[in-house]
Amino acid sequence: MPGVTYDDAPLLADLMPWSVAPPRLGRTWPAGPDAASLRARWDALLAAGASDREALFEPSRARTLHSAVGQLPGQRAGTERLARASGPCPEPVRALVGPFDEQWLIPDHRLIDAARPELWRVADERQVFVVELPEALLATSCFPLLRAGRVRPLYRRPGGREPNVAPGLPEHLTARLGRPVTAPDVLAWIVAWTLTDVRPGHPVPLTEDTGLWEHGVELGRRALWLMRRDGERPKLPGGRRPYVRAPLPSRPLSLHYDREEEALHLDEGRIAPVPPEAWDCTVDGTRVLEQWFAARIAEGEPGTLEAIRPALWPQAWTSELLELITVLALLAELRPQRAGWELTEPVTAPDLRAAGVLPVPDAARRPASVLDAREEGPEGQLALL
Questions:
Q1: Which of 141-145, 222-226, 328-332, 374-378 shows the lowest per-residue confidence on average (mean pLDDT)?
Q2: HSE of 270 in the Cβ direction (CA atoms, 13 Å)?
Q3: Residue 348: band (very low, low, confident or very high) from pLDDT cuts 50, 70, 90
Q4: Which helix or strand (DSSP H or E) is residue 45 part of?
Q5: Predicted TM-score of the model (pTM)
Q6: Are strands 143-144 and 93-98 parallel, antiparallel or unpaired?
């Protein structure tokens, strides 16, 4: 791209310095596309005898039925050992399990090998989690559960407090641009830039061109709204909105796209119009719609908890599919606006070093001390933080 010198661009790891390794479930059954199945899996686990319960749980080095762990921050799961647990399933929460794939998770520390409590401590309605994948950046309001990619929260504390940006960066950009710059503005710029250009190490060129900056922030805000899918639901203009044109079967097994008629076929069911850009959307080499569909028709091995799934295709999945098609189509419309940029008046990493913004202090790369709420430790004991 003309005017872009990536060698001098600051890295995402410096712009948003605090990051957390991706959570690791250790077993797949605590997450799934519908909450009712998760509750049924929990009930089946607790109804099983001792030996069957252990097999159903699928123990690992990190978690067994006898592991003693505390509550996940902000959740109300029990803390007694699972070998003698009773009671209802902890209320499932939304989680981003795959690119653009929002599913459900049982938020119980006893079920998760590496839950990353530091992420749960800052998860609330104000938070935005940025997931750093090799060839893409994703943003979500849900708990991030993708298997790869570090997670960079926008805020280091609950309630939208203490932004996770390089200390002094918003003030420095405010002075360079001659207009106020906030941490959400920085994130919006990052997301806009990476709509079409993600490189190894995730360099993110900055600018002091006010017009370009304002255009980028506006574009990034739109992309963030589409990725997060909170608030008003996204819609395509009339005539381009996808609808179910032929009823979906009760248990579809195949997915096919007809490019000529711009239709998505689920067996004999048909959804149209589906823009080619939505069907062609890939993340790290995987087609998003195909991966989403595969997660919902997968069958767990008989006798396992993962085999407990809806017998029929829920109506909610159809609604989610229509919304996902809409999101992918609207995001595709943003990319041409981004592709034509010519970066002018760059703010480089050497500029940020000269201003004292870089290198970031070591403390900015570590989680903040969050002591706003009591946390229950193993067997109901007060957790010491």
A1: 374-378
A2: 10
A3: very high
A4: helix 35-47
A5: 0.94
A6: parallel
Strands 129-133 and 136-140 turn out to be antiparallel
- pLDDT tens-digit profile of 147-192? 888 999 999 999 999 999 999 999 999 999 999 999 999 999 999 9
Which candidate, 154, 146, 91, 165, places its Cα nearest to that of 124? Answer: 154
Taking Cα atoms as reference points, which of 332, 127, 342, 329 lies closest to residue 215? 342
One-letter-per-residue 3-state SS of 247-288? CCCCCCCCEEEECCCCEEEECCEEEECCCHHHHCCEECCEEH
Measured between alpha carbons, how far is 30 from 300 in angstroms, rounded to an integer?
A: 13
Extract the tokens encoding 126: 């104000």
Are the C-beta atoms of residues 103 and 295 closer than 8 Å to each other?
yes
Q: Where exactly are the structural domains of the chain?
A: 6-232+342-380, 243-325
Cβ-contact 189, 12 below 8 angstroms? no
Residue 96 pairs with which residues in a beta bridge?
102, 144
What type of residue sits at position 168? Answer: G
Q: Is 363 exposed, middle or buried (0-12, 13-18, 19+ CB in 10 A)?
A: exposed
**Angstrom distance (rounded) from CA 246 to CA 234:** 23
Question: Omega into 359 within 30° of 0, i.e. cis?
Answer: yes
- DSSP run (H or E) holding 334: helix 315-339
Q: How far apart are CA 130 and CA 128, in angstroms?
A: 6
Q: How far apart are the C-alpha atoms of 125 and 143, rounded to whole Å?
A: 11
101-105 and 31-32 strand pairing:
antiparallel
Beta strands in the chain (DSSP E): 31-32, 93-98, 101-105, 129-133, 136-140, 143-144, 150-153, 155-157, 161-163, 206-207, 243-246, 255-258, 263-266, 269-272, 282-283, 286-287, 346-347
Q: Put residue 201 in one of left, alpha, beta given phi > 0 → left and psi -120 to 50 → alpha.
A: left
